[in-house]
Amino acid sequence: MKHKPFDAERIKGAVQQFFPAGSSGEINIFKSINSTNAWLLENGQYGDICLSESQTNGRGRRGNAWISPDSGNIYFSYCYGLNDAVEQRSLLSLVTGVAIAEALTDIGLSGHGLKWPNDIYWQRKKMGGVLIESSNQSDRLIIGIGLNLNLPDIYHSEITQAAVSLNDVLKGSSINRDEMVIHLIRRLIQRLNTFENSTFDEIKQGWKEWDILLGETVSFQHQGDLVSGEVKELDQHGRLGISNETGGIEYYSSAEIKLRKL
Ligand code: BTN
User: DSSP states of 43-73 as a string?
Assistant: First the structure.
């Protein structure tokens, strides 16, 4: 089904007020591009946004492709400058996930949550994901967000996990994609503004409200062993806590483990 392209003027008008002082805040909207993350890595200044109707080389985490047809989804990237607080950096993806979850609530969704480290889920199916990338030459971080609003059935077989689109869930109530983008930008900038001054406990608390894994039993491969245990809280580095057989908790980073499908 044909969808309405992004309304650049509407989006720009609505979000101008949210940008931090001194940031460029340009919104670049494309019909097709290789990857909105790649474009900002090359061309972006602090506060710039890149949106595209489709991506020819959409990137996902762990080197996976992000299926990016021109069917009304959101492929969005934001150029962020984080003062070199390395500790905080590992928590950035959690805060981004929270901002997305809040924006989805704003447009009327319920029943959604976050699967560590930063997948957006609706009832055990993946609706979106976050990929944060940086270049060696600068301290800019590119926060990439992919959100399925309308993913035609033919693409589901190309995705290794169960996927769902916002339109499938909010059937009947027509979703305005421009509104969704406006909420997304507002929530993201709000969360990022407070991020650097937030304590770990505040960030953890924000995450916990959306965490769909807490208390679940999960299993995964770690250094050749199959580990299983109950999901506990995150540690200061954003690592996932898993109960072990002796009643203690072991922490794992997202680089170390890949959780199985839910
Ligand atoms: C994941 O694997 O879950 C993360 C997916 C992130 C996809 C988004 S779409 C916009 C931005 N540009 C990209 O190439 N990737 C991210």
Answer: H--TT-EEEEEEESS-B-GGG-B----SSS-
Measured CA to CA, the distance from residue 186 to residue 182 in angstroms comes to 6
Ligand 1 center to 35 CA (angstroms) = 8
Tally the residues of the chain: 262
The predicted model scores a pTM of 0.95
- pLDDT tens for residues 169-215? 988 677 899 999 999 999 999 999 999 888 999 999 999 999 999 99
Atom 10 of ligand 1: nearest residue by CA position: 75
Q: Which atom of ligand 1 is nearest to the CA of 61?
A: 2
Residue ranges per domain, the chain? 8-208, 217-252
Q: Is 254 in the pocket of ligand 1 (CB under 6 A)?
A: no
Whole-number Cα distances in Å, 20 to 23, 44, 132, 141, 193: 6, 16, 20, 16, 8
CA–CA separation, 242 vs 219, rounded Å? 10
For the domain covering 8-208, report its CATH number: 3.30.930.10
Non-local (6+) Cβ contacts of 132 within 8 A are 92, 93, 96, 141, 142, 143, 144
